[in-house]
Amino acid sequence: MPKSPATTARSKRAGSQLTPDAIIEASLRIAARGSEDAFTVRRLGEELGADPTAIYRHFRDKDELLLSVADRTLGEVLDSIPEGLDWKGRIRALAAGSLEVALRYPVVGSTMASRTTRRPNEFRVVELIIGAVMEAGLQGAEAAVHYRMVGESLLAFVGQRAAHLLFDADIRAADESAWSREYRLVDAQAFPNITHLSTELAEVTDEQIFQVRVEALISAIEKRVETLRGA
Amino acid sequence: MPKSPATTARSKRAGSQLTPDAIIEASLRIAARGSEDAFTVRRLGEELGADPTAIYRHFRDKDELLLSVADRTLGEVLDSIPEGLDWKGRIRALAAGSLEVALRYPVVGSTMASRTTRRPNEFRVVELIIGAVMEAGLQGAEAAVHYRMVGESLLAFVGQRAAHLLFDADIRAADESAWSREYRLVDAQAFPNITHLSTELAEVTDEQIFQVRVEALISAIEKRVETLRGA
DNA sequence: ACCTGAACACCGTTCAAGT
DNA sequence: ACCTGAACACCGTTCAAGT
């Protein structure tokens, strides 16, 4: 069989075909496997067909790689937002897109929940949110703090969901069944409210909670605008 | 010098003085050191004056230990809430207390942000929040989903702040300075909103954001009550 | 200039052996 | 019944050596 370089591009001895982009794309492939495949430097080396430590020629450390990967996924979120929406629609679309991407790449969503990438696509997200809160009627310091509220809340929401996806199946099952097990068995005298709502508590879905949390952000902005207009 | 057993209670050869409570208290001492001292099984062994693996006689694994430690800290939060507050006051006090405790034991606050302890003090917190949203005027499924919104949002807020405290000093500094560095230097044409608000963005404090996020939860509940009354 | 691979300094957890 | 300590199967990262 003759050599066919095109189909052996990732063979171990192909020279210096390692680029930041190739490393980011390999990272996304691993991240997409969720809890089935740990996102480690050694696993990344396998995926690239290179020595695990080769990535240190292109990224200072794993943290810097993750920030770059996260910024790439923010690009996917931005591309999913349609044109022409009003401020509420843009925040809802940003929330839905962020959730979808965080659940697709849980290790990225989880790790980045309390970070700032300081990279181009994050700038675009910030620009979008500030535009929305200003269109809603906030300005100056009020717009700034409400932007931060929205931005960090969205990161927190999707980060929580993503982190949960990364737990071992047994831990996840134990947490998920709490509302239909432990919380149904609490002492009725000591915990009357829980007892009274036990059925409804077990029926709440993650999707309902997410929607209510996003609407809470919007309500809070509207209420703040009304309060400031009234004063 | 004569033996004085009372003062050598934690000596290496004192027999079986290891109890779940002693392990939880040692865990809290390590957790209180924040990013200066990693919360590892080996470090816990040192703190207890025992072999690192001794804790596996009392807890199935590190996760179960952390759940127990977390429930202990929830007790501290509950003890900090005064009697006689109305529903808004109780949510504000719960938020403030949770933040304080999460910043005191960051590794606990960070790890538990997407978990359910399913332990006694968590039941008390759930009872408190459900009582608050019902006093606000919500019932049944509406009360259930709004309880979940409040509970998970508070966990997310304090978890984000706690996680940030655990990063290495240089990573934390880079994230904190983003608003006064990278975000001040963005292209004014491409990012007019960021440019317009750059001063205000750099001046927002974590405390302001936290307060706005807590008030947003309260606003959202009030708005939902109004909407349901109107319908 | 970039990649390799041995090595270092860590992790959580298991299990046979001690007392 | 509980604790010990060696051992296992991992981590991220460094650095001298290769090409």
TrEMBL record, chains A, B:
GO terms for biological process: negative regulation of DNA-templated transcription. It holds the Pfam family TetR_N. It comes from the Bacteria. Residues 40-59 bind DNA. Residues 17-77 form the HTH tetR-type domain. Gene3D superfamilies: Homeodomain-like, Tetracycline Repressor, domain 2. This is TetR/AcrR family transcriptional regulator. It comes from Streptomyces inhibens.
